[in-house]
């Protein structure tokens, strides 16, 4: 029956799988509950930057975790992790007040309130950096606050250079800086593309920081989606996709996968099997969606068939309206994203029933 419903496009073929950070969050919450701060602190120090950043955001949104931060700091006064989680907790609170809408659409009272909360986070990040100027996560937080508050861009460049000098191409920082180059966040014309090109040219092969190239394409797709003539996904891909865009994103994919065209398929299979439960899995989904819009059809097909329809990232919801709460309550939270995936497959002449095996 499920196969019949998929054929009739009543239900999607793609499936949701737990986010790669979920087991890390469970482990961290378990350690906090036991008060095992020393092992938690040492373990977090050993995590890749991308994983640690996602974990910090999740803990910052967890009220129980935030209630243990004072005890954590008391047990390990030199640790920056509880301070970071507290600062990112303020960022989470500021976003809860602000909402995801454009600045001009924020109701007046909330427009006055959220900058105060974000400024509190900014001050906490600044204190961490004052104590340790090489703390890349705190510098990423400063850049985030700077972008959202629309503050001076020159300081943002200094923080980026500080991270590059001490931590190299630290993906969380690169990602936050890239946000500020997007047109909808005040970036100049094509600044987001120029920054992504700079990253692709200079970041080492295999680095997740190359994801900013895919994000640049997806932001262009979001911009075009607002134009009446190109409101469908296929229309957007026809508008954005050309030989130049495809070649540019192809270079980013090859650099991220540390491959050449002849070895890309094997490298993607290696990444899916050995690093799929890491931020590389998010990169794979993001590049797949961006490749579709950029016109890099061969790479998009290859990425989609490697993913096999098992999705964890929210990137597929980029062009879909917000999901009503009742859909989540009945287990259909990810339905729209899965339908988008299936539509992309069909536009690329792939059968999603065969892709999602």
Strand order of the largest sheet: 1-2
Average pLDDT works out at 90
Q: What characteristic shape results from the CA principal axes? A: globular
Q: Structural class from helices and strands?
A: mainly alpha
The rounded Rg comes to: 21 Å
Fold and architecture overview:
There is one protein chain. This protein has 357 residues and is an all-alpha fold. The chain is 69% helix and 1% strand. It has helices at residues 2-7, 22-34, 37-46, 49-60, 63-67, 69-75, 81-98, 108-131, 136-149, 153-167, 171-181, 191-202, 211-225, 233-240, 243-257, 264-274, 279-294, 297-307, 325-329, 335-347, 352-355, and strands spanning 15-16, 310-311. The chain has a two-stranded parallel sheet. Helix 13 (211-225) crosses helix 17, helix 15 (243-257) packs antiparallel against helix 17 (279-294) and helix 16 runs parallel beside helix 18. The model has no long low-confidence stretch (mean pLDDT 90).
How do you describe this structure in short?
By secondary structure, this protein is an all-alpha fold.
Sequence-ordered SSE layout with sheet pairings:
Layout: H1 2-7, E1 15-16, H2 22-34, H3 37-46, H4 49-60, H5 63-67, H6 69-75, H7 81-98, H8 108-131, H9 136-149, H10 153-167, H11 171-181, H12 191-202, H13 211-225, H14 233-240, H15 243-257, H16 264-274, H17 279-294, H18 297-307, E2 310-311, H19 325-329, H20 335-347, H21 352-355
Parallel strand pairs: 1-2
Helix pairs in contact: 2-4, 4-7, 6-7, 7-8, 7-9, 8-9, 9-10, 9-11, 11-12, 12-13, 13-14, 13-15, 13-17, 15-17, 16-18, 17-18
């Amino acid at each position: 029956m499920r196969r019949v419903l998929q054929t009739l496009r009543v239900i999607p073929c793609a499936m949701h799988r737990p986010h790669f950070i979920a087991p890390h969050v469970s482990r961290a919450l378990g350690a906090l509950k036991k008060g095992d701060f020393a092992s938690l602190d040492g373990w977090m120090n050993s995590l890749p930057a991308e994983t640690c950043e996602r974990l910090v955001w999740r803990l910052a949104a967890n009220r129980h975790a935030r209630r243990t931060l004072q005890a954590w700091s008391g047990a390990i006064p030199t640790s920056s992790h509880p301070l970071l989680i507290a600062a990112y907790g303020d960022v989470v609170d500021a976003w809860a007040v602000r909402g995801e809408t454009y600045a001009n659409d924020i109701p007046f009272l909330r427009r006055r309130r959220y900058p105060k909360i974000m400024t509190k986070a900014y001050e906490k990040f600044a204190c961490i950096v004052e104590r340790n100027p090489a703390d890349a996560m705190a510098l990423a937080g400063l850049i985030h606050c700077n972008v959202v508050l629309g503050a001076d861009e020159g300081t943002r460049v200094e923080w980026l250079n500080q991270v590059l000098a001490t931590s190299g191409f630290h993906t969380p920082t690169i990602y936050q800086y890239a946000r500020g180059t997007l047109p909808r966040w005040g970036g100049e014309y094509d600044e987001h593309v120029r920054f992504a090109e700079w990253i692709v040219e200079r970041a080492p092969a295999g680095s997740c920081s190359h994801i900013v190239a895919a994000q640049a394409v997806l932001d262009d797709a979001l911009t075009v989606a607002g134009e009446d003539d190109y409101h469908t996904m296929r229309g957007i891909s026809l508008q954005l996709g050309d030989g130049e865009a495809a070649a540019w994103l192809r270079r980013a994919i090859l650099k991220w996968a540390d491959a050449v065209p002849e070895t890309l398929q094997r490298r993607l299979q290696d990444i899916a099997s050995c690093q799929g439960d890491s931020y590389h899995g998010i990169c794979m989904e993001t590049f797949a969606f961006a490749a579709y819009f950029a016109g890099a059809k061969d790479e998009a097909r290859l990425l989609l068939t490697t993913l096999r329809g098992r999705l964890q990232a929210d990137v597929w919801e980029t062009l879909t309206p917000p999901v009503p709460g009742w859909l989540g309550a009945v287990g259909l939270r990810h339905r729209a994203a899965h339908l988008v995936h299936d539509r992309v497959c069909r536009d690329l002449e792939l059968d999603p029933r065969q892709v999602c095996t």
